Amino acid sequence: MKLTIIGSGYVGLTTGACFAKVGHHVMCVDSNPKKIETLLAGQIPIYEPGLEEIVKQNTASGRLKFTTSTEEGVDFGEIVFIAVPTPPNPDGSVDLRYVEKVARDIAAVIKGYKVIVDKSTVPVKTGEKVADTIRRYAPSVEFDVVSNPEFLREGSAVADLLDPDRIVIGANSPRAIAKMQELYAPFVAPVLVTDINSAELIKHAANSFLALKISYINHLSAICDAAGADVEKVAEGMGMDKRIGRAFLNAGLGYGGSCFPKDLAAFTTISNQLGVPFHLLSEVHNINTVQLQRFIKAIRDTLWVLQDKKLAVWGLSFKPHTDDVRSSVAVELVRQLVSEGARVTATDPKGMESFREFEPELAGKIALVDDPLAAVEGAEALVIATEWPDFAEVDLNEVKKRLIAPLVFDGRNLLDPWTMKELGFQYHCIGRNSAARS
Ligand code: UGA
After folding, report:
1. Ligand 1 touching residue 154 (CB < 6 A)
2. Cα dihedral sign for 70, 73, 75, 77?
3. How many domains does the chain fold into?
């Protein structure tokens, strides 16, 4: 099939590349000529395992094309995806101006029947507004609007796209449903066909539920510390119940990234607007905020005064296997340590460049080094903020030698409490502190 993806950011590019990989002909559109130039030169502007190779192979085979022209794109595809950013407004609602602009741009150039698919994460009822907008500016042209939310995790987006748990198609027209089923025919996954509003809600409801699981286990981690229990064992025991499942019950510093915090705020706002406030979600958010504060308090309780103390921080990205530092709890942690006067030396396997780009002011206040061992040199303590497997490989005896005191605050339960104890570290972790001390 011939497909067009408008917006060549993280979601648009991964979706376009993977559709090309399964045999479709894809044209990716982006209004940023620099981005299109980079892509045409075979480089990808983000770090996502496996993506660059797929982009290169499919560009070479001619199945994946790039353009800055919306008209060329809309003329090309039978299905046109909207995959533009939906950033948060300061009040938590979603800024839909890019989606609205693309709807107008499509209306300006659409000539015959197209299926217009919303891939961007949007509040319920956005599909209706997209349809109204196109109808207003192109009243005589036939089209259908579909909601087809993405469930990609950064760092494993290619695998999530090629081997999804489910495909959700929200559509109100049999013609559009048939086109979408043809599109997804090469994928082996259950397909759920719903109305547009339900599909939009599925995305917000799923992300909010995952965030709820994380906050649940994080609050439990504090109870475990207070009661002398081990949160990993509690999670394991809970997770063995198939109705609960072990996934997303990893206690840590809380969730971050460009999806959960934003989607939770958006879902809270839209439920308020619908007159059905979702108070539970506010508590999920509160627990997430308190979790980081509790961790910083543990550092403060041990080191007493942070002013002028050198601290090593391992991790800046919001989770491992990505260079994304947006709404990263690790970055927030660094910000707060710096605001208390600590001298931070940080390292991250992939996130340092984007940290410099997105947080130039904060980056100017800390030292950044490539080597985790260089980061701990002469530091009062090591703080682990992101669970990169690379950090688990570092020689802990060497870490101990280089630290002023053998003090480790592990915000992601990356290391083993018993090993740390055996090696003579004072080890603080999340909800496993009785294990670390027994
Ligand atoms: C999330 C969802 O998992 C995807 O299904 C969804 O498509 C995507 O948002 C999106 O809306 O686009 P992502 O934000 O890439 O994906 O990352 P996750 O792997 O879900 O992790 C989110 C945050 O939760 C990270 O900060 C991670 O460290 C944290 N987390 C995750 C925990 O603290 N504990 C866990 O057990 C799992």
Report:
1. yes
2. negative
3. 2
What one-letter code names the amino acid at 176?
Answer: A
Residue 176 and residue 225 in one domain? no
The answer to whether the CB of 98 is under 6 A from ligand 1 is: no
Alpha-carbon distance of 225 to 345, in angstroms, equals: 28
Ligand 1, atom 13, lies closest to the CA of: 153
Residue nearest atom 6 of ligand 1, based on CA coordinates: 151
Cα 153 to middle of ligand 1, angstroms:
6
Q: What CATH number has the domain bearing residue 432? A: 3.40.50.720
Q: Is 150 in the pocket of ligand 1 (CB under 6 A)?
A: yes
> Quick check: is 202 in a domain?
no
Largest distance between two CA atoms of the chain: 75
Domain with 155 in it: 2-194
- Give the DSSP letter of residue 87: P
- 88 inside domain: yes
Give 130-190 as a DSSP string: HHHHHHHH-TTS-EEEEE----PPTTSHHHHHHS-S-EEEEES-HHHHHHHHHHTTTS-S-
pLDDT tens, position by position, 216-240: 999 999 999 999 999 999 999 999 9
User: 348 CA distance to ligand 1 centroid (A)?
Assistant: 18
Give the alpha-carbon dihedral of 369, 373, 374, 380, to 10 degrees.
110
Tell me which of 148, 171, 194 is where a domain ends.
194
Is 163 among the domain residues? yes
| CA-152 nearest atom, ligand 1 | 7
> Is the separation of the CB atoms in 346 and 371 below 8 Å?
no
Ligand 1 centroid, distance to 261 Cα (angstroms):
10
Same domain, 135 and 234: no
Q: Specify the pLDDT at position 436.
A: 61
**Which pairing describes strands 167-171 and 143-147: parallel, antiparallel, or unpaired?**
antiparallel
Atom 28, ligand 1: which residue's CA is nearest? Answer: 319
Query: What's the pTM value of the predicted model, to 2 decimals?
Result: 0.95
Q: Which residues in the chain come in under a pLDDT of 70? A: 435-438
To the query of whether residue 259 is one of the catalytic residues in this protein, the response is: yes
Give yes or no for residue 355 CB within 6 A of ligand 1: no
The tens digit of pLDDT for each residue in 344-361 reads 999 999 999 999 999 999
Closest ligand 1 atom to residue 412 Cα is 33
Pair (185, 217) in one structural domain:
no
Q: What pLDDT was estimated at residue 164? A: 96
- Does 162 reside within a domain? yes
